[in-house]
Amino acid sequence: MNFEEAQNKLAQYGQEHVLEYFHELDKEHKENLLEQIAGTDFSVISKITSDIKKSPRGIISPIKAMTLEEINTKKEEFTKTGLEAIRAGKVGAVLLAGGMGTRLGSDNPKGMYDIGITKPVYIFQRIIRNLLDVVDIAGTWIHLFIMTSDKNHETTIAFFKEHKYFTYNPDYIHFFKQDMAPASTYGGKVYMENKDKIATSPNGNGGWYSSMQNAHITDFIHKSGIEWLNVFAVDNVLQRIADPCFIGAVINKNCAVGAKVVRKSDPDEKVGVICLEDGHPSIVEYYDQTEQLRNTKDENGMPAYNFGVILNYLFHERELEEICGKELPLHIVEKKIPYMDKTGRFINPSEPNGYKFETLILDMIHLLDTCLPFEVERNKEFAPIKNKTGTDSIESARKLLQENGIEL
Ligand code: UTP
Fold first, then answer.
1. CATH class of 55-403
2. Burial of 202 from C-beta contacts in 10 A (0-12 / 13-18 / 19+)
């Protein structure tokens, strides 16, 4: 993109200030900025006024989950189907590690966090160990795609190299960067990080599949015959990945997606609950759960919306291709955005000062026709690390890991 093209693109979105310091830059920095302007989708910012009011929800009704009891009666059959799919190379795993982990308060990627007590035990190490459990049983390697972001890509790769991929086969690990979105003031002007760089942040975990396409990872997936993608969050150190029983159940039920779910610990637990919305599978995030939704009971007198998602999904890849043209709702989130002020000083704000723009993986579920909510035991599979202390923290995860016989 040349200077004029950049000027025109910015003018279209009222972002001309991005080129304010262009004349001061040397050739290389000028090129960097032009390249970033070419690759940035400024249209998200125009949604500040139109989309910030949430569109009303459809009609919510309960969805039937496959409970532990039912799973136990068919465990062997599901596991056999799942292992066959894994051995045939039809299953890949996708680790979402592009987040900023701000609540944990570390500058490093979340996966590099050491949760050990008597020895180092890194979050990435736990995840690889969990996947290796299945590799050992199946007797075959499983392709693992790791999504990073511009902010943590090199650090993440270097960390894996330094630790020799925690004994995983490096030929089966593929890193790719997720796409970034610009960050703006409340008035909708993009912030500049410095004179040649627009302030950006990862575009939310809903950006995983389009980022895979943009990074040409999907070409590799098609070539290698992978049909199912098990997508999971970096911060649940207890979850089973590429779990043969889960895979087999979703295949046998012929669903477009499977979602691992846990019974809510109490009605106020901060997890999204799975349901039907206008007859399609859907997830209601905790902040959107009304009193009425929390209090609705099923025919047995149990809470009707009692299954929370743990961000561990198995998607049929072909179905993802079909929905990828559809737009996901944009979440406009107030955040602290480091920026360069008018005098050229770099400011790291202590209070939120603008918006970031994200799409969420949970909104992808609603675009699909069929979903299998698959219950897992929360004490064996759900130990998310979001905070330093308290709920969903390093402390609570350590306790659960130890209860499951994992030495720390
Ligand atoms: P969270 O929603 O917990 O966000 O991510 P986060 O960025 O890790 O943490 P906070 O909110 O800043 O404290 C859930 C999962 O989605 C991934 C995260 O890495 C985590 O595995 N994620 C999130 C991405 O891969 N990209 C994103 O843009 C956002």
1. alpha beta
2. buried
